[in-house]
Design a protein that fits this description.
Blueprint: H1 3-10, H2 19-22, H3 28-39, H4 56-71, H5 85-95, H6 97-102, E1 114-115, H7 116-121, E2 137-141, E3 149-153, H8 155-171, E4 183-189, E5 197-201, E6 207-213, H9 224-232, E7 236-239, H10 241-250, E8 258-261, H11 268-278, E9 282-288, E10 292-298, E11 303-306, E12 311-316, E13 329-335, E14 343-357, E15 360-367, E16 373-375, E17 381-383, H12 384-391, E18 400-403, E19 409-414, H13 421-431, E20 437-442, E21 451-453
Parallel strand pairs: 1-14, 4-6, 4-7, 7-8, 8-9, 18-21, 19-20
Antiparallel strand pairs: 2-3, 5-6, 9-10, 10-11, 11-15, 12-13, 13-14, 14-15, 16-17, 18-19
Helix pairs in contact: 4-8, 10-11, 12-13
Length: 461
């Protein structure tokens, strides 16, 4: 493994940064906001530390970027690529080691596709040569499909997410206004183990940002979960369907201006229940770690309207051929706002069809990743991500976990990795409170639907 790969893997792992690095532009008002989030009497146990890491000039860049994205239009429609595509492909082939090794292909449609397994095999080969490693960040992903990933990013890239969330919110008439001394966004998790932290958002006047875990073990008192939300009064609450189902049960009095559901498919029934209880728009955002926020569901439009003008979307068949408008296939991406990881014909593993709503391309019949929870031997429910954590120490290239109608669990492993069957079974049984686990050889190639269940209650609807 060469020096560049080592640097990418090790960046920000071997040394704990200080607050001056986490919050380079922190003011006294921002410091007070951090203290309030951490030290409130109802605050959770924050397990981690994070920060925006934005330099002063980058804060201005992010504000300008948000302004541009809010007004940007799409320059393509299904079957008619954008004018920037050729230049983008030429830059990627010239600067990204993985694509440079494959060589130039004259016709865009003839470029071989990539997928999550390619990134997992050697992520450093997908980072463009000009990107400096000094301020690069990496983060590890766990999901419901495919391979675990370490993805390269940068403070500016992380800050750009807000531009696309603002674009989605604007579609539903919501313009963010919370700033200094106020809580901007609260991110929810509902897992046995979860990365939790506080930060501030410089482009929004250092409004507060907190990632909290609603699992009761992370709080001094279970009732503190609702108290903390009511005390901080976040303008927007973001989470996934599993954490939102818990939020419904907690029933805080606070009414945010919007709820953002990300990373997993949101059922219409849960969306309706959330809207009724909180009286605000509930946005179902199609998003993934590799590409960020891609689209937002719009019932009037009849699909998920795309959010990134700099992302070209194709729908491909199994052989990599582009399908006509309206035909369902695999959603495939080219472009993106993460300059550390430009995507070129990247197959997402999700399915849908392309259509147009006015001048905006959208995805219809989206068949994305579903949240799955599992019933343990003691009768409690746990998040599928808890199963990912249980197996994280094992060198598994892929796996599948299925819960049957009788609550029995089967773990499917590749035939070549059955040597890990015993420790994998033991890890899952411990997480599932002693529920027996059967290990079964997996014969499927590469892509698998990682988490499945026969129990209706397991689909977090």
């Amino acid at each position: 493994m060469d020096a560049r790969v080592n640097a990418l893997v090790d960046v920000q792992v071997n040394r704990d940064p200080h607050d001056g690095e986490r919050y380079p532009t922190l003011s006294e008002a921002g410091r007070a906001m951090l203290q309030r989030m951490r030290e409130h009497p109802a605050a959770p146990r924050y397990r981690n530390q994070s920060g925006n890491r934005l330099l002063a000039e980058e804060v201005q860049q992010v504000r300008a970027y948000e302004h541009d994205i809010l007004g940007a239009g799409f320059q393509w429609q299904p079957g008619s690529p954008p004018p920037w595509l050729q230049g983008f492909v030429e830059d990627v082939v010239a600067q990204v080691p993985y694509f440079r090794a494959r060589g130039h292909v004259a016709c865009f449609e003839d470029i071989a596709t990539t997928h999550r397994g390619d990134l997992a095999a050697d992520i450093a080969q997908f980072v463009p040569d000009p990107v400096p490693l000094q301020r690069m960040m990496n983060f590890r992903t766990t999901g419901t499909t495919g391979h675990p990933l370490v993805l390269p990013s940068h403070p500016v890239v992380a800050a750009r997410y807000l531009a696309y969330h603002k674009r989605a919110l604007a579609r539903f008439g919501v313009q963010l206004r919370n700033g200094q001394g106020q809580m901007g966004v609260m991110l929810l998790g509902m897992q046995q183990r979860c990365f939790t932290y506080v930060s501030v958002t410089p482009s929004m006047g250092e409004s507060g940002l907190a990632k909290i875990n609603l699992h009761p073990d992370e709080w001094r008192h279970a009732d503190d979960r609702a108290r903390y939300i009511d005390a901080l009064q976040p303008e927007v609450i973001a989470g996934d369907p599993i954490s939102f189902a818990t939020l419904l049960e907690l029933a805080p009095r606070h009414r945010p201006r919007a709820l953002l559901s990300v990373s997993m498919a949101l059922s219409p029934g849960l969306r309706q229940a959330l809207q009724q209880q909180f009286g605000c728009p509930v946005l179902d955002i199609y998003s993934m770690n590799e590409a960020g926020p891609l689209a937002v569901h719009d019932a009037i439009a009849g699909g998920h309207v795309l959010l990134q003008p700099g992302m070209y979307v194709e729908v491909l068949d199994d052989d990599g051929n582009a399908l006509p408008t309206g035909e369902v296939g695999e959603i495939t991406l080219t472009g993106g706002f993460n300059f550390c990881l430009p995507l070129l014909r990247y197959r997402t593993g999700d399915r849908g069809a392309l259509a147009m709503h006015g001048r905006l391309p959208m995805i219809v019949d989206l068949q994305g990743r579903r949240p799955v929870r599992y019933r343990t031997h003691s009768g409690r429910w746990i998040n599928n991500i808890d199963l990912t954590h249980a197996l994280a120490a094992l060198p598994l290239s892929r796996f599948r976990v299925h819960q049957h109608h009788d609550a029995a669990v089967s773990l499917y492993l590749p035939l070549a990795e059955m040597a890990h069957a015993q420790p994998a079974r033991a890890a899952l049984q411990l997480t599932l409170d002693g529920l027996p686990v059967q290990v079964v050889p997996m014969h499927a190639e590469d892509k698998v639907l990682q988490y499945t269940t026969d129990l209706d209650e397991g689909l977090a609807a």
